[in-house]
Amino acid sequence: MKDLYSMIKYIRKNWKLFVCGILFSAFFSMAANIYFANILQDYITNMTEHQTSLRGISEMLVLSLPVLLLLSCIDNIGLYIFSLFLASTENELRYDFYNSLVRTPLQNLQKLNQGEFITRYSTDIEQSAQIVSYDIFGVIYPLIVGTGYMIAVLLADITIGFLMILLCVTVIILNFLFVRRMKHAQAEILQAKETYVSDCSDAIRGKMSIRQCSAQKVMCQKTGEAADNLYRRECRAVQLETMKLLTADAVANSCMYLLTPIACIMAACGHIDVSVVLFIHQLCRCFILYTQNFAVSFVHYSEHSLSFERVNTVLSFEDELTQKRVSRCGSIPENAAVTFHNVSAAYGNHQVLKDVSFTAFPGECIGIVGGSGSGKSTLVKALMQMIDYQGEIYIGEENCKNHSPNTLRKYIAYSPEHNDIFPAAVHDNIQYGDLNATEDEITAAAERAGITEHREVFLHRNIGENGDQLSGGQKQRVSIARALLKKAPIYIFDEPTAALDADSESKILNTIEKLKQEGKCILLITHKASTLHIADRILRIDDGKGFCV
Question: With 60 as the cut, is the pLDDT of residue 326 above it?
């Protein structure tokens, strides 16, 4: 029930759709069936007592048909309203899921792999939304409708009524016996899906290397094993479903076929009228059907709650804007030094930075060098408040921890090593640096990043998924142009020339030189000696410690 309480907020957001959808469907479906059962009873009574002709029966049918159609239409309107509630809830869940991903600290995103995120977004959210839609609908709807049927049958014949209640309790108990086992089977299926999706994602990302290394057979075997594992788990779920059909569902079907013959026997013995038999048959059939749906809803809830637990893992990620308690928010100066004082950082038990201290002044470029994994990128992530660290980092006299990440990042332009290219046009990728920038400013930023040849055509090129339509150097220039468009006082370039030719590298270095002349503070991570010449000082990181030379 904990999962249900967590989902109540989505009911509150659209409570009108929720209430109208359930009540319209339940009350008018019940009214339609009880009214139809009464009409059947009246038909039989009139025919057996020879009080009416064929014309009279036809008139009764003509008069009752519009009422039945009206009740049925209102019932369908209720189902339509509830479908809108389901669609709205699923959409809000997806939005909250995505919002949690983009607002949480980076270390939380490393807790799950890509396959897990994709499966939870595509499959688990759809299942989770059904907790507050069809699962609750499947409980409340049968309760309302079933109660109405039960009262009507008890008033018609108390013996059949009590027998009907006894049989429905049996059906519910048998269904509950499968709840835990089916939840466990669903958990195994979801886990197998994550593995399969992750393997397929790895194959897509490494498509060129797979062909180059002739590793198609190995990758096919790996994904094939994941698919086989998923198949075995789904077979187990099918077996459980079949067992439920042969037990709980068989009892429910027996109930539907059993009560009418019992009513006929009672009519033959003179305990009830023949006309009451049809009334009981119609309502008992519906009552057992909804009883079965009531029990099945609990089975589905156990499966859907498992999906919500997995979605809630992401929804519970802490927002980095609320995670950091800002003690005060002074103003950050436009041109000020960046000072690291005894900064240390670790990933788990692995210490990456150890008491690193240095100062980068306005108009100065600090070249940061070190071996792979030495902590170069970790250093700049600490400046942007993307990771936890010990020590102090100042911009001017302001401690970065005293500012919200969003406020701080407005003063920092960052071009990452892996470019972070989005599936859109080159123009749109650059514009992310400043969404309010004019076309002239975007063009100028592209030119400063070395995008000069066929610039207009290039800016409107769609780069495809993962930037597949661009070369490594082109993606690098797009990333640099995005950073330049931001016009921040502090610039961070992580391997900005790694994939560039000598001519393109020269253009980027000229741009960095101009940034220095404009009084910008620049942190430059590079392993290329030709790029490092632009640096005024060099910070060498070795074994987690920094030494300025």
Answer: no
pLDDT above 80: residue 118: yes
- The residues near 342 (Cβ < 8 Å, ≥ 6 apart) are 355, 356, 357, 390, 391, 392
What are the angstrom distances between the C-alpha of 393 and each of 111, 342, 400, 544? Answer: 27, 9, 6, 17
Q: What is the pLDDT of residue 24?
A: 83
Instruction: Go through the chain and tell me how many residues it has.
Output: 549
Mean pLDDT over 152-178 rounds to 79
Sheet holding 365-370, edge to edge: 412-415, 490-494, 521-525, 365-370, 537-542, 545-548
Q: Which residues of 198-217 are buried (b: 16+ CB within 10 A; e: fewer)?
A: bbbebbeeeeeebeeeeeee
303 near 127, Cβ under 8 Å? yes
178 backbone dihedrals φ, ψ, rounded to 5° = -95, -10
pTM (predicted TM-score): 0.69
Residue among 102, 140, 119 nearest 25 (CA): 140
Cα separation of 199 and 228, whole Å? 13
For 14, phi then psi, to 5°, come to -130, 50
Q: Residue for token digits 């692995």? A: 350
Contact 278, 37 (CB under 8 A): yes
CB 296 within 8 A of CB 176: no
- Give me 87's structure tokens: 């669609």
Whether residue 78 contacts residue 21, with contact meaning beta carbons closer than 8 Å, is answered with yes
Pairwise CA distance, residues 459 & 444, whole Å: 12
The count of other CB atoms within 10 Å of the CB of residue 363 is 15
Q: Are strands 537-542 and 545-548 parallel, antiparallel or unpaired?
A: antiparallel
pLDDT digits (tens, 9 = 90+) for 380-407: 989 988 888 999 999 888 888 888 787 7
Q: How is 424-454 classified by DSSP, letter by letter? A: SBHHHHHHTT-TT--HHHHHHHHHHTT--TT
Rounded to an integer, what distance in angstroms lies between the CA atom of residue 424 and that of residue 452? 20
Q: Which residues pair with 541 in a beta bridge?
A: 370, 546
Residue 377 phi/psi, 5-degree rounding, is -70, -30
Q: For 237-248, give one letter per residue: b (16+ CB within 10 A) or e.
A: beebeeebeeeb
Q: Which helix (H) or strand (E) holds 396?
A: none
pLDDT top residue among 295 and 473: 473
Q: Which residues pair with 522 in a beta bridge?
A: 365, 491
Burial class from Cβ neighbours inside 10 Å (0-12, 13-18, 19+) for residue 457 reads exposed
